[in-house]
Amino acid sequence: MVSSKDVAKLAGCSQATVSRVLNNPESVRPDTRTKVLNAMKALNYQPNLAARSLVARSTRTIALVSGTLKNNFFAQSTDQIVTYAAGRGYKTMVYFENEGSLEEMMTAVQGYKVDGIIVSCVKLDDPHFTQLEQLGIPYMLFNRRHRSACNYVAMDNEAAGGLLTRHLLDMGHRDIAYLSGPPDISTFYERWAGFEKAMAEARLSVRQELVHFNASDALEAQKLAWKLMQLASPPTAIICVNDEMAIACLDALLSMGLSVPSQVALAGFDDIGLASHQAIQLTSVGQHKFRMGEMAAEHLIAMIEAGPSDRTRPQDEPRIQIKFKPELFVRRSTSYKI
Amino acid sequence: MVSSKDVAKLAGCSQATVSRVLNNPESVRPDTRTKVLNAMKALNYQPNLAARSLVARSTRTIALVSGTLKNNFFAQSTDQIVTYAAGRGYKTMVYFENEGSLEEMMTAVQGYKVDGIIVSCVKLDDPHFTQLEQLGIPYMLFNRRHRSACNYVAMDNEAAGGLLTRHLLDMGHRDIAYLSGPPDISTFYERWAGFEKAMAEARLSVRQELVHFNASDALEAQKLAWKLMQLASPPTAIICVNDEMAIACLDALLSMGLSVPSQVALAGFDDIGLASHQAIQLTSVGQHKFRMGEMAAEHLIAMIEAGPSDRTRPQDEPRIQIKFKPELFVRRSTSYKI
DNA sequence: CTGAAAGCGCTTACAG
DNA sequence: CTGAAAGCGCTTACAG
Question: Over 60: is that where the pLDDT of B51 sits?
Answer without folding.
Answer: yes
